Amino acid sequence: MAISVLPGLSSSTYRPYVHLHIPLFRFVPKADAYVSKSLPLPTHFPEFNDDDSKLRNWKRFSSNHLGIATSMIPIPTRKVLNGLKKTGYEVYLVGGCVRDLILNRVPKDFDIITSAQLKEVSRIFLWCEIVGRRFPICHVHIDGTIVEVSSFSTSNRPFDRQLTSAAIEKPMNCEEIDFVRWKNCLQRDFTINGLMYDPYNNVVYDYLGGMEDIRKAKVRTVVPACTSFQEDFARIFRAIRFAARLQFHFSKDIAGSIKNLSCLVFTLNKARLQMEMNYLLSYGSAEASLRLLWKYGLLEILLPIQAAYFIRNGFRRSDKGSNMLLSLFSSLDKLLAPNRPCHSSLWVAVLALHVALSDQPRSPLVVAAFGLAVHNGGNMMEAISIAKSINRAHNANFCELLEPENLEVQALIDEVMDLTTFVKAALHKMTDEHFVSLALETYPQAPASDLVFIPLVVYLKVCKIFECVVEGAERGFVPKRGKINYECLALGNLLELRHVFARIVFDTVYPL
């Protein structure tokens, strides 16, 4: 029997006993667009007719009718899918990538699950390693990228959600493969992540009601939110991330549980907190994430200095355009995407600049000259010359910006130097437990927090971004021009960081 394959496989992809030659097709993703709540869901696929309650919500949908095409799958992922399928294993795309394809978004990454054992996966592909102890997966290295592959045999681990043995019994008239897929989906955190896509039969399997939640633009946990969040508190951050990135709303269960369990943030180690905050602020949805953190009482725990700013200025969640902190992150979001993130030092630098301006408002000309000096490696005279030539009106809604004044060159240099000193002092405040603990002391209703999760390596990277302003033009320095190199930005390349930082500052102070 012939086995169908997806376009995009080369015989060198895996071990020599599999031979297949198919021309490669370039991956052309759909435009990144938000799907409305009126997303039409096909209903012509047959549903289970058994009376068993476990089967009532099991549905299959045509991937073609959902707008999913195999050309939307990157070539390295297609090569791995084909390698496993050709060898006779069941193979699916699973999790967030399926959700994003349905929503007409470019996924951050593509995860594969297969009926093959992980050791069998490692035998199929030339360069593959098994990583992870508690939940092992395979990293398949292919075409300069890593494709993650998990196995049904390891993902269907013993249940730890107090489910009875009867709850996971195979229902009557249920095929074994459906039972295996269903059990795996029960281990997911959110229903919208519990979809499986079979690209060979063009079917999306939904065992948890995830498609209905996508239609309603709702984030809902697979098990009660209180139970789910206590299993892994980091799921609260994931819920906020999905709601912010997808513009979805929470189920009542999730909204209540986040507020009730927000204090559990202290149970996560600082490295995990920094990683989760980076997911929230580095992938194009930072403004919405900050709004949600504020709404659900997490901002005053994680970023007390920023929470104090919100309280001091009487911030309301509906405010738009008058809050400089959110406007700075809105400018950052316009330059990023889930598949085009920035290094964490960039959003820390933005926070530090805003703290400095909140403590001591400045003329927009001073802020512009500072941003330009950062961009061009400390060439102050060039920065001032360009800043003085700006004829665009600044954003007058921000209390952090003073009325423009025509400063002489030396006075402007002094102001820029003083702002740099304030930025460095703000960075020190944000990474010092004592200063952080003082941020909300005048607001007795706010919880006390001295949490600092910004690591030393990020602190030093941010210092490096700004040090050129004080030390002067660097020898042989050539400012970044043209388009953003997102690979370099994600890695923390200094040129890219300074280039994007300056763009954020300018677009916020002098919006089009």
UniProtKB/TrEMBL annotation:
This is Poly A polymerase head domain-containing protein. It comes from the Eukaryota. The lineage of its organism: Eukaryota, Viridiplantae, Streptophyta, Embryophyta, Tracheophyta. Residues 91-220 form the Poly A polymerase head domain. GO terms for biological process: tRNA 3'-terminal CCA addition. Belongs to the tRNA nucleotidyltransferase/poly(A) polymerase family. Keywords: Nucleotide-binding, RNA-binding, Transferase. One of its GO terms (molecular function) is nucleotide binding. Residues 248-308 form the tRNA nucleotidyltransferase/poly(A) polymerase RNA and SrmB- binding domain. CDD domains: NT_ClassII-CCAase (cd05398). It holds the Pfam family PolyA_pol.
